[in-house]
Prior knowledge:
By secondary structure, this protein is an alpha+beta fold. The chain has two helices and nine strands; from the N terminus they run βαβαβββββββ. 18% of the residues lie in helices and 30% in strands.
Amino acid sequence: MNLADLSIDQPAEHSIEQLDVWTTPLFVTQMPDHEFLKDDLMTLIYQQKAQQQTAIDSLVAPSAKHALHESQLDFLDQQDATLMETKRQLEELILEVATGLNQAHWPEDAQADAHIIESWYHVTTKGGYHDAHSHPNCSWCGIYYVDPGDASQSNMGGVNRFYDPRINAEHYADPGTAYLGQHGVWDFTPIEGQIVLFPSYLKHSALPYFGDKDRVVIAFNSMIELY
């Protein structure tokens, strides 16, 4: 008998459902009134920078930072109309993100508020960087690129790098792990007026910056409250 004449049932396709678990949501948006806020923010930042007694005024992990100035952690809490409006708009954006992700898990009649509990500026000069770190004791963090300087230009550095939180994702590599991206990082190139929001557990860094113009950002930590 010719084997080609045999009728062999072909296996049916398997019904396989993909479950994406433990994803890490990041959000990018534009500061609503950036064009109206920028000049005043830059003036306030440089006025305060000129009064700093030390480059890292927050005194937080100074050895992890190089060639940058950092304020104390209450920058947006000062009684200034521009800073108060900046904080209000940022809290609105944080609340929108947090509500969209969490509302299904909140009590049906719950109302929520977002509170920025820490905020600071970075003014980074040529060669400046911030080593990898995360932000404890808060839920959502963000970086507002007031003026990214030359960071948006090729090879000028100054990008923010986010690290894969799956700490063992790269303990082995073969063609079956190609979907992981092979490098475990995601680089975000700063664009003026943009904000990136991310969960506090996510490690990130600011890679060395090589631009001639200062790279100026406002970073913040926040908490969500239900009432």
